[in-house]
């Protein structure tokens, strides 16, 4: 009986599970060792009935009490050996298989960190989280238990079948009759169960997403007193999951009922036939006892097949879900064209004033998952930010300003055109390098669970100066000053405080290129004025692109670019644009052109 | 703000204390509600076990009675054996089928119930709790911790019941077959019990550690995925890898510890079991040899013994899932034991019927004082404030002046430490949630969108709103154009294809949501910070009509907002330092006049 081969009737599940091999490979010696030990231990338990037979037909029949003692001693030795082997098997794989789970989780995490941002836009993090937790636990469980026991039980059943056939082949055959229908049923079961378990795991992922959103969006839910309707929506999803689980249980109930009944019927038949044979004197009582004892010893291995197959199927689905993410292509490290002459050296000697700074040339961008026929978000951007210059980017809500800023550190790939930093195409720079040259403060100021100092130092070493630039004096009032834990697991800061720390992080490394997405939106007027003053110093010799919604922010810039319908429609000073562009005037609306003096702060635009 | 440095408290250590017995109480209450299902499953299991354990008895009968009878030409006993075995086989299968289905129903209902309880409770807990408990932990509670209960129910409990039942049945059968042999088998339970007890004690601790380690892994994972852009730009990948590796290794170690503890247990229990088998066989065979026991009885006894000790490994697996489920349930019980600091009223009251035509209501802060923690410094010292119905009040002041706290008290995100907040004379604490949210709605700076369509996100303000009303709200706030331009218009899924919505647009959606809710009091807390000037203008334009007759509290550092206000409050260090009509304050020499001048200047 080849239960080991049972999954191979569906190469897809097997093929999926085979992908685990690279992770199992480092621990293969121990794993195979453990499997062999488990097989040996299982076979030992099959020897026990033979000893019983020997006792019954030998010493017992002849009334040899010394022989009884000897038989019992054999039994004891076999039992001790079996116990030690089982324990040893578990001890062997305990740490290695935990390692496999941890390695897979680490790889998933590392991989996700390096997948394109567009991937993360598409995938709810709950779906990712459920892969890193529940799915990987299933995989570990699979390696510890079902996989080993499919092998062990398969071998045990085979050996058992041989022993049965050897003892009395006619009776043995009776017991083996149900094997064929069982195998067929197992195949059919596996197919249906695969579908159901995939559905259930996906639904669990969706449920995780709802949980996550309900936690992240708790303020809004509270604001509108929506926690009841949120709970209803949750209940609905959880109810669907329950439905799928019940469907799975029905399938499992069916297969395990058959797996229980058929072998039992065979044993019953063998018992009746065997009794007749013993009565006829064709068979010794000891043989019948041993025979039935062996058959019953095989019951658990056979009974468990349905359950093991179900676990394998779930593990296969989990593995599939895992690799679905792992198969996504990472961002390359950039600089695939590093051999090209242009990339070999630092900024192109000669004409820095022409090629220097930050330059967008014919930049077109459409989100990779958007309709290929749809209008690009950015449609032919030509813009040159000169070295040391600060350029404000102004445009109506949704005009693509944030998208444009995301292109500079290559969070998204251009659809067409190119962006150069000091004359070098950003695609020719290693991403690492590119991102160390370009510093960004996002509109949404995300802080990580770490101290204030660690958060700021992510951008560069100059902690104190950066905090000063961002006017983050409030830090000294925090419980542990710059060593205060902030972020998800720490003190919760106000929007304005977070924004200032995010700004400090962006300027901490004195980057050559600075991209600021509406960096002052959450600050009050007073603080805004202070930050602007100190930021001006930083911007004086940094090439910067600043998304601005308001005149006050625009005034940080030397020139302004107006973004409209995916193109830069005008570039000039604030004053020029106010005068020449109706759209710009509208965006800055309510402003009289008279208050022009402030714009004269034309700093050193080299 | 001079926060006193605090030692990490229970929340930070992730060790929320559950009252004694809460874990058991939780499991009990989950099962009690579906007592019928539990009883049905148990009965089916007993029947299934009875049918499944019939085999060896029939073997004994066949050998001791069937063989001699057959030799005498009587086929009756053998026919009885055949029929008995047939019934047992079919019964075992049928009851197995019934049991799996019945128990799955109970299990799934328990899980559904527990998930729902955690979810509802988390939703009801106040914001201060959420701010400290962190989303990652909350997610861990409702996912991996529920998962470990699922394992317990799905596999563990079933194993336990099966093991206990078969233990009982088999012991009874053994004693019935032969008192002496049965007694030995029962005696062997003493060392087994001691083993189990020791294992439980040792592994309990390990499992609790493991669950904490898992929660840390989840927190880190979720934080990284939710902040993927800054992770990229600040090249945190490697540092994160290293940190995650550490957390992951801690989890791996505790996981390994748990498995090794299990290996120890398996060795011990197998040794006891196999020794007992050898002893019973020795004694039984000795007695058969000397003629004081029938061979068939020995055969049946041996067959039963094998079954008796077979499920011992599975008992360990049950203990495994039991330990891990207890650890998880303890954490869940701790969460469920948290009392919302902003509880729903015991005796809810309705707002008085509106006498005026207009929707606005009067707000009174009646001798209100507020501190975040008992004994902590006052964020808002005692004050009295009346906001007239239908008027718009602007609150200005620097960061940390207490503006948002004032707003949160009015929205009842927090309750005042002393005093009352009254809405048309009714204490906010007496209002049931739906009534409260008809009264007060707040739009904050962070505009979170839920998965689903744009329309659904707006309809969060009023779920029964028609499409026309939703569009009307969007139009009023100037959000209609961009929504209409999305690939599927109002039906665009905000998480899917082309559903990228900028921060400013999200704020517009948040506004539309608030408009749709049609509250008596509307609080805007920095709600226009991400809008550009035209966007803000449009919102203000809309506000002029929308706010008319409503009571509004507007917190904004863009003083342009003040233009629509009837009254301005200037706050500093938790106190209201200036209060008056905008024009009066601007004309004066106070802080507001200075602020306003600075702002005017910033406009170029």
Task: Describe this entry's structure for a reader.
The complex is a heterodimer of chains A (606) and B (604). With 606 residues, chain A is an alpha/beta fold. In chain A, 62% of the residues lie in helices and 10% in strands. Chain A has 24 helices and twelve strands. In chain A, a hairpin with a 2-residue loop joins strand 11 and strand 12 (567-572). In chain A, 55% of the residues are buried. Residues 1-11, 337-352 and 590-606 of chain A have low confidence and may be disordered. Chain B has 604 residues and is of the alpha/beta class. Chain B folds into two domains: 22-336, ABC transporter type 1, transmembrane domain (ABC transporter transmembrane region fold, Up-down Bundle); 363-602, Rossmann fold (3-Layer(aba) Sandwich). Chain B has a six-stranded mixed sheet with strand order 6-7-8-3-9-10, with helices on both faces. A four-stranded antiparallel sheet of chain B has the order 2-1-4-5, with helices on one face. In chain B, helix 1 (22-32) packs across helix 12 (312-336) and helix 8 crosses helix 12 (312-336). The two termini of chain B are 33 Å apart. Chains A and B meet through helix 3, helix 4, helix 5, helix 6 and helix 9 of A and helix 3, helix 4, helix 5, helix 6 and helix 8 of B.
């Amino acid at each position: 009986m080849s239960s080991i081969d049972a999954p191979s009737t569906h190469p897809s599940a097997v093929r999926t599970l085979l992908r685990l091999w690279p992770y199992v490979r480092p621990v293969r010696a121990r794993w195979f060792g453990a499997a062999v030990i488990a097989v040996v231990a299982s076979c030992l338990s099959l020897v026990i009935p033979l000893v019983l037979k020997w006792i019954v037909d030998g010493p017992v029949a002849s009334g040899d009490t010394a022989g009884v003692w000897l038989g019992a001693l054999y039994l004891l030795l076999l039992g001790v050996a079996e116990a030690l082997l089982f324990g040893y098997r578990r001890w062997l794989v305990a740490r290695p298989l935990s390692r496999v789970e941890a390695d897979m989780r680490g790889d998933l995490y590392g991989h996700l960190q390096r997948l394109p941002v567009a991937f993360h836009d598409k995938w709810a993090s709950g779906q990712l989280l459920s892969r890193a937790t529940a799915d990987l636990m299933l995989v570990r469980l699979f390696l510890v238990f079902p996989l080993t026991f499919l092998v062990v039980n398969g071998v045990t059943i085979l050996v058992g079948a041989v022993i049965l056939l050897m003892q009395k082949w006619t009776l043995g055959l009776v017991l083996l009759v149900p094997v064929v229908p069982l195998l067929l049923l197992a195949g059919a079961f596996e197919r249906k169960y695969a579908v159901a378990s995939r559905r259930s795991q996906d639904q669990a992922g969706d449920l995780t997403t709802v949980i996550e959103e309900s936690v992240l969006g708790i303020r809004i839910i509270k604001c509108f007193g929506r926690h009841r309707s949120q709970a209803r929506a949750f209940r609905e999803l959880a109810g669907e999951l329950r439905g799928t689980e019940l469907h799975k249980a029905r399938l499992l109930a069916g297969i395990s009922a058959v797996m229980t009944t058929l072998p039992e019927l065979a044993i019953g038949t063998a018992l009746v036939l065997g009794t007749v044979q013993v009565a006829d004197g064709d068979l010794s009582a000891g043989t019948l006892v041993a025979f039935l004892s062996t058959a019953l010893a095989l019951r658990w291995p056979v009974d468990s097949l349905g359950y093991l197959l179900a676990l394998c199927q779930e593990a296969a689905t989990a593995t599939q879900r895992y690799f679905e993410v792992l198969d996504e292509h990472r961002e390359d490290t950039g600089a695939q064209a590093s051999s090209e002459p242009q990339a070999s050296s630092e900024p192109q000697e000669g004409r820095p004033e022409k090629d220097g700074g930050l330059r967008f040339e014919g930049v077109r961008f459409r989100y990779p998952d958007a309709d290929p026929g749809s209008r690009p978000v950015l449609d032919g951007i030509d813009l040159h930010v000169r070295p040391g210059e600060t350029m404000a980017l102004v445009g109506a809500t949704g005009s693509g300003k944030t998208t444009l800023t995301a292109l500079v550190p290559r969070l998204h790939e251009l659809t067409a055109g190119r962006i150069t930093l000091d004359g070098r195409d950003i695609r020719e720079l290693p991403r690492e390098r590119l991102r160390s040259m370009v510093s960004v403060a996002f509109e949404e100021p995300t802080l990580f669970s770490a101290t204030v100092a660690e958060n700021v130092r992510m951008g560069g070493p100059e902690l104190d100066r950066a905090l000063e630039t961002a006017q983050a004096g409030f830090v000294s009032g925090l419980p542990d000053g710059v060593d205060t834990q902030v972020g998800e697991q720490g003190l919760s800061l106000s929007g304005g405080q977070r924004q200032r720390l995010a700004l400090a992080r962006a300027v901490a490394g004195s980057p050559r290129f600075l991209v600021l997405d509406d960096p002052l939106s959450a600050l009050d007027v007073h603080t805004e004025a202070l930050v602007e003053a100190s930021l001006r110093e930083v911007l004086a010799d940094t090439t910067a692109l600043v998304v601005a919604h308001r005149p006050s922010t625009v005034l940080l810039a030397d020139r302004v670019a107006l973004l409209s319908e995916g193109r830069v429609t005008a570039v000039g000073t604030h004053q020029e644009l106010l005068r020449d562009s109706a759209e710009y005037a509208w965006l800055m609306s309510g402003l009289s052109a008279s208050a022009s003096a402030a714009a004269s702060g034309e700093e050193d635009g080299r | 703000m001079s926060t006193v440095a605090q030692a990490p408290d229970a929340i930070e250590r992730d060790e929320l204390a559950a009252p004694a017995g809460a874990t058991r109480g939780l499991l009990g209450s989950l099962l009690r509600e579906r007592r019928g299902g539990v009883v049905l499953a148990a009965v089916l299991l007993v029947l299934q076990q009875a049918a499944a354990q019939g085999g060896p008895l029939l073997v004994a009968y066949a050998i001791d009675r069937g063989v001699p009878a057959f030799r005498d030409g009587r086929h009756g006993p053998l026919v009885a054996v055949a029929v008995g075995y047939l019934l047992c086989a079919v019964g075992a299968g049928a009851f197995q089928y019934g049991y799996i289905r019945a128990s799955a129903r109970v299990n799934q209902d328990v899980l559904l119930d527990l998930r729902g309880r955690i979810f509802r409770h988390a939703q009801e807990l106040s914001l201060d709790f959420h701010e400290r408990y962190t989303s990652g932990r909350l997610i861990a509670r409702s996912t991996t911790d529920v998962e470990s209960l699922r394992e317990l129910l799905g596999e563990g409990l079933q194993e336990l019941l099966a093991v206990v039942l078969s233990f009982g049945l088999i012991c009874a059968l053994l004693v019935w077959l032969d008192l002496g042999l049965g007694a030995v088998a029962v005696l062997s339970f003493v060392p087994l019990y001691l083993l189990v007890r020791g294992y439980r004690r040792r592994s309990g601790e390990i499992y609790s550690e493991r669950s904490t380690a898992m929660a840390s892994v989840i927190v880190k994972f979720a934080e990284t995925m939710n902040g993927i852009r800054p992770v990229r730009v600040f090249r945190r990948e490697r540092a994160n890898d290293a940190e995650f590796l550490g957390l992951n290794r801690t989890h791996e170690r505790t996981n390994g510890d748990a498995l090794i503890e299990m290996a120890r247990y398996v060795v011990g229990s197998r040794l006891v079991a196999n020794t007992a088998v050898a002893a019973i066989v020795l004694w039984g065979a000795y007695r058969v040899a000397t003629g004081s026991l029938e061979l068939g009885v020995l055969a049946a006894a041996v067959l039963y013994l094998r079954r008796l000790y077979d499920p011992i490994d599975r008992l360990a697996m049950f203990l495994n899932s039991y330990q891990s489920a207890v650890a998880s349930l303890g954490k869940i019980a701790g969460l469920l034991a948290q009392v919302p600091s902003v509880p729903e009223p015991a005796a809810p009251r309705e707002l008085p019927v509106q006498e005026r035509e207009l929707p606005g209501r009067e707000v009174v802060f009646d001798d209100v004082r507020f501190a975040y923690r008992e004994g902590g410094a006052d964020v808002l010292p005692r004050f009295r404030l009346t906001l007239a119905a239908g008027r718009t009040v602007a609150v200005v002041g620097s960061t940390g002046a207490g503006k948002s706290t004032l707003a949160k008290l009015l929205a009842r995100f927090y309750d005042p430490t002393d005093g009352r907040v009254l809405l048309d004379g009714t204490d906010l604490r007496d209002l049931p949630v739906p009534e409260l949210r008809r009264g007060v709605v707040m739009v904050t700076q962070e505009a979170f969108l839920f998965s689903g369509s744009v329309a659904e996100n707006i309809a969060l303000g009023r779920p029964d709103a028609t499409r026309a009303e939703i569009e009307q709200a969007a139009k009023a706030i100037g959000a209609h154009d961009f929504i209409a331009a999305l690939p599927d218009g109002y039906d665009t899924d905000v998480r899917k294809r082309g559903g990228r919505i900028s921060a400013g647009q999200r704020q517009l959606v948040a506004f539309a949501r608030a408009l749709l809710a049609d509250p008596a009091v509307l609080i805007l807390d920095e709600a226009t910070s991400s809008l550009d000037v035209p966007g803000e203008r449009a919102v203000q334009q809309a506000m002029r009509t929308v706010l008319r007759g409503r009571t509004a509290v507007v917190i904004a550092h863009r003083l342009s907002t003040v233009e629509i206000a009837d009254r301005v409050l200037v706050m500093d260090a938790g106190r209201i330092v200036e209060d008056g009509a905008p024009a009066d304050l601007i004309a004066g020499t106070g802080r507001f006049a200075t602020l306003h001048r600075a702002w005017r200047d910033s406009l170029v």
